[in-house]
Fold these 3 entries.
Entry 1:
Amino acid sequence: MRSVSPVRLANLVFCGLLLLSLSCLAQSPATISLPAPQTTGGLPLMQALQKRHTTRAFADQPLTSQQLSNLLWAAFGVNRPPNLKLGLGRTAPSAMNKQEIELRVLLALYAQSVGFPPR
């Protein structure tokens, strides 16, 4: 078996993800209702940073709609009134206020329709 250079492998993975993204675009996205995000409570910042770690194991249960709402808001929600000069006031900063972040959520309910095998 021939070895593949890391750059070549990265290019292949990128192309695969791009094709997957394009195939998902062909499907009309479903809209779901989520509860308002919980923006109070939780750990203080320094405790959250101290406990932060990477994990490669994931739970078998799906996120609740509240957890999904909180996660999406933390990733790119609006946290202050819009300012015509400065933009929307997002929770996540962006260079020169370009707002180049795009979030997509794939729910198990719809996963098979876009080619993901059942669990």
Entry 2:
Amino acid sequence: MRKISKVILLAASFTLFTACSSSSKVMAPSDSKSPEKSSAENNSNSGSNPIKGITVNKIKYEDVKIQELKPNIKNKFEAKKSYKGFISYKDEDDYWYIGIFSGEKKTGGYNIKVLHVEDIEGETGIVVEETGPKPSTIVTQAFTYPYTVIRTKDVVGPIIVKNTLGQEFKDISDIGKAID
């Protein structure tokens, strides 16, 4: 009888500790066409110093083909394509054009695309995915310059561009300018 009560007590303790130590949240899928706010939970048990979350708003953007750009904007982006980084340009219609460059590659098969653009506490955060050719793929044997251009009206604060590995892209607006 003692063994049975010990086993029941042990099972109840294990269940209690397991149930108290794990938590999960299910979030509804977001609609990328409308801005959303999300924030970390406030800790209501901490009295007068609650933990505040980070506010994130989705920013609407569109991919732009290089052929669709006005000549002056196209020339600015074409001049930077051999460098790794990004540049931004605001036109007279208050659109921001942001070009993100992977830099010079020795072969074809490389690509870069924007995954999402967000306003994160007053900074415009852009995440890009860079891909390369698979080892067995036959690719062009020539230098290539993968880049992408997006357009938005909703840039806030400084622009921060990172790839999916967390590596930050530098603003290369000043690279290549003549010194007066």
Entry 3:
Amino acid sequence: MDKLNQWLTLGANLGVILGIIFLALEVQQNNELIASQNRFNAQQLVNEYTSVIVTTPDLSELMFALDSGDQPLTGAETMRVSQYFRGLFKSMEWSFLELPQEEIPLVAWQSQSSGRLHRMYWARLRETLNPDFVAYMEANTAIDGE
């Protein structure tokens, strides 16, 4: 009987150890899935603001007119473009604050930030953004504080 109890205890302990190993594997898979979802969400944020320009021809025309300097924009038009950039920068700021460093879509940000309008609106809006995000962007993209 004593031998049987020892074997049952050994089996129970082995079951507990296997359960812990299984749980660790499940947690790891869940973490990988969450990281993948975070990368996808960050890319969706980048795509969303890019697609706004493509799918909204009048906004594209406003931005082109502003960039070329050919014609002054009305107050409403200026506000619309400003709100686009405010949303873009806030979206980028959220990604910077919420995502691990290696998941930040820096290459996309670098390509977006090279335009004159991006730099112009950055100069106007940078004071409304998180100082760590501002420092990161100014160190890693074409945007600067001027």
